[in-house]
C-alpha cells in the first residue's frame, strides 16, 4: 500500500523522524516536502540529523501570505497526488502544509490520516487553529495524543476513526535524548547546568505585534539569568523591522543565536533552569525534560502541562513578566501524560487494520 506523507516545516520533520522509520517497515511511503521551511537551519539539518529519507518530491513553495502559500502548495500537490495515486495521505499537526495536503486529498477522494488530531486552543485568530479544525473535519483516521484531544473532537461531532495513541513527539524525545547527550556538552554553548533560561519566540501573535515583541525583549533583558535565544528567521526579521535591536544589544544577558538543530534543542532543554516559549512543541518538551515552562500566549492546546503545574500561560503585556520568568517552579511529579513513546507503532498497526 502506498501512503503519501506531506509536510514542510521544522516541527513536522521532527514528527516524521519518529514515524517514517516505523511506517516504512509496513508501507511504501512517498515523502513530499512542500518546502514551507527552506533554510538549512530550519529544515535541511533536521533531514540530516534525524536521518529522514530524501523526499520523493520537493515542491520548493517557501514563504508567502497564508492564502498564497497554501494555494501554491495545493497547485503543486494536486499534480503530484494525481501522478502517484496514493491509497492514503498522511499529514501532521496544524501548519499551512497540513491544510494544503488535506484539502487536495479530500477533493481527490483520498483518505486522510491526521497525526496530532483534536488539539484546540479555541482561538480562531491563530492560523494553526483553523488548519487543525479544517483538517480534522475531513480526515478518515484521526490519531490523538491525549484524552482531551478526543473530547475536543467529540464536541465537534467527530467520533469515527479517532484513536488515542499518545504523542509522536514523545517517541521522538525517547529515541533521541541519549544521542543528544552523547553528542553535546554545555561547554560547546558556553553555558552552565541550570545556569540559563532557554527562550523561543516565533508565533505571529507575538512577532507581528510590536507592543508584545517589545514587552518580551524588555522582560528578557531585565532578568538576571542568561536568556539563550535561538531565533526563528521570522522573529529576527521582525526585531530588525521594528527597530528593537537596541534592546538586545544593550542587554548583557540576552544571547541570540541562529536556529539550532533538534538534538541541540533537546540537550539545551534538559539542562535549562527554565524555558520560555510560544511554541506548542517546546511546551511539551519542557515537560518531558522536567523543566518548568512559561508560555507567552493566552491559550494552549497542551492543557495537561498547565494542569500539572509544569507550564504557565502569561500574556506578554502583563506586568512583572520578568519576575514571572525568574520565579518559575517545578510542577507535580511526572506521570506519563503523553503516552508511552510507542505512538508510531500503534499508528502503523491501526493503518494496517483500516486499509489492508
Ligand atoms: C510555521 C507554522 C507554525 C509552526 C512553525 C514552526 C503555519 C501557519 N505556521 O510558522 O504553526 O509552529 O512553522 O517553525 O504554518 N522563514 C525563513 N526561512 C525558513 C522559514 C521561514 O526565513 O526556512 C521566515 C520567512 O520570513 C517567513 C516567516 O519565517 O515569512 C514565516 O514562515 P512560515 O513558514 O510562513 O511560518 P512560521 O512562522 O515558520
Automatic annotation (TrEMBL):
It comes from the Bacteria. GO terms for molecular function: isomerase activity. Gene3D superfamilies: Glycogen Phosphorylase B. Residues 25-351 form the UDP-N-acetylglucosamine 2-epimerase domain. InterPro entries: UDP_GlcNAc_Epimerase_2_dom, WecB-like. It holds the Pfam family Epimerase_2. Keywords: Isomerase. Belongs to the UDP-N-acetylglucosamine 2-epimerase family. This is UDP-N-acetylglucosamine 2-epimerase (Non-hydrolysing)/UDP-GlcNAc3NAcA epimerase. It comes from Planococcus citreus.
Amino acid at each position: 500500500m502506498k501512503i503519501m506523507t506531506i509536510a514542510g516545516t521544522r516541527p513536522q520533520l521532527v514528527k516524521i523522524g519518529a514515524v517514517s522509520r516505523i511506517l516504512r517497515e509496513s508501507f511504501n511511503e512517498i515523502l513530499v516536502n512542500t518546502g514551507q521551511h527552506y533554510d538549512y537551519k530550519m529544515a535541511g539539518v533536521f533531514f540530516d540529523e534525524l536521518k529522514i529519507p530524501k523526499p520523493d518530491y520537493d515542491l520548493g513553495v517557501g514563504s508567502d501570505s497564508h492564502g498564497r502559500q497554501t494555494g501554491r502548495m495545493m497547485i503543486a500537490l494536486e499534480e503530484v497526488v494525481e501522478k502517484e495515486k496514493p491509497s492514503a495521505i498522511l499529514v501532521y499537526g496544524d501548519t499551512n502544509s497540513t491544510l494544503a495536503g488535506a484539502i487536495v486529498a479530500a477533493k481527490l477522494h483520498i483518505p486522510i490520516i491526521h497525526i496530532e488530531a483534536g488539539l484546540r486552543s479555541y482561538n480562531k485568530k491563530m492560523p494553526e487553529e483553523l488548519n487543525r479544525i479544517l483538517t480534522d473535519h475531513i480526515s478518515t483516521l484521526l490519531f490523538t495524543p491525549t484524552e482531551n484531544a478526543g473530547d475536543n473532537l467529540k464536541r465537534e461531532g467527530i467520533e469515527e476513526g479517532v484513536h488515542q495513541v499518545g504523542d509522536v513527539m514523545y517517541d521522538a524525545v525517547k529515541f533521541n535524548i541519549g544521542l543528544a547527550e552523547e553528542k553535546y556538552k554545555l561547554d560547546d554553548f558556553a553555558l552552565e547546568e541550570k545556569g540559563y533560561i532557554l527562550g523561543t519566540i516565533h508565533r505571529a501573535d507575538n512577532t507581528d505585534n510590536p507592543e508584545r515583541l517589545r514587552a518580551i525583549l524588555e522582560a528578557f533583558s531585565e532578568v538576571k539569568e542568561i536568556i539563550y535565544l535561538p531565533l526563528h528567521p521570522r522573529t529576527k526579521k521582525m526585531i530588525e523591522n521594528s527597530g528593537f535591536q537596541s534592546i538586545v544589544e544593550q542587554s548583557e544577558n540576552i544571547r541570540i543565536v541562529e536556529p539550532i538543530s533538534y538534538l541541540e534543542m533537546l540537550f539545551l532543554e534538559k539542562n535549562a533552569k527554565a524555558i520560555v516559549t510560544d511554541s506548542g512543541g517546546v511546551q511539551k518538551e519542557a515537560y518531558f525534560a522536567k523543566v518548568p515552562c512559561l508560555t507567552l500566549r493566552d491559550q494552549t492546546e497542551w492543557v495537561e502541562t498547565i494542569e500539572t503545574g509544569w507550564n504557565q500561560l502569561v500574556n506578554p503585556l502583563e506586568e512583572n513578566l520578568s519576575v514571572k520568568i525568574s520565579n518559575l517552579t517545578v510542577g507535580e511529579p511526572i506521570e506519563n501524560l503523553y503516552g508511552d513513546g510507542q505512538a508510531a507503532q500503534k499508528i502503523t498497526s491501526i493503518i494496517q487494520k483500516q486499509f489492508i
